[in-house]
């Protein structure tokens, strides 16, 4: 075993321990390990930042920005209130109306975007109906997938 291999294995082990213990936030740990590999010279700076230009990374970043701005603007609050008024008669009917609305929206918007935007709303709806949020987050995903298959516009593969 060469010294370079030992150093890389040590850094991988350090990253594993830091990710496992969460002594630092995960993003800080990941970027610190990347920076350390650049400083040591094992990864050229061009290769280190190449991953940030990947369209998937940019898309996910944009989705988080969109989701946050929709939350802060109050549009989601309005949507939740309208959906809860329609389905406030019973818990089952309310969740069915809510998931149907997600499926319809997912037919025209990417599934990932719909799920990212509707996760906080789904948690609020679950709290309103006194249901554990973990019981409605998987149906949220299934409704988004179902809606995406209606038109193939909103599917994850696109």
Task: Provide a brief overview of the structure.
With 158 residues, this protein is an all-alpha fold. Helices cover 78% and strands 0% of the residues. The protein has two domains: 3-53; 55-151, no CATH class.
Explain what you see.
The chain is elongated. The longest helix is centred in the first third of the chain and has 19 residues. It has eight helices and no strands. It has 158 residues and is mainly alpha-helical. α6 runs parallel beside α8.
Q: Any descriptors?
A:
158 residues, mainly alpha, elongated, 8 helices
Low-confidence stretches: none
Please report the number of helical segments: 8
Q: What radius of gyration results from the CA coordinates?
A: 21 Å
- Sheet/helix structural class: mainly alpha
What share of residues are in beta strands?
under 5%
Estimate percent helicity. Answer: over 70%
- Mean pLDDT, as a whole number? 82
Tell me about the largest β-sheet.
none
Q: Name the shape in a single word.
A: elongated
Give the N-terminus to C-terminus distance in angstroms.
45 Å
State the order of secondary-structure elements, H for helix, E for strand.
Answer: HHHHHHHH
Count the strands?
0
Counted up, domains total: 2
Topology (SSEs and partners):
Elements: H1 3-21, H2 26-40, H3 45-50, H4 55-73, H5 75-86, H6 91-106, H7 111-128, H8 134-151
Helix pairs in contact: 1-2, 4-7, 5-7, 6-7, 6-8, 7-8
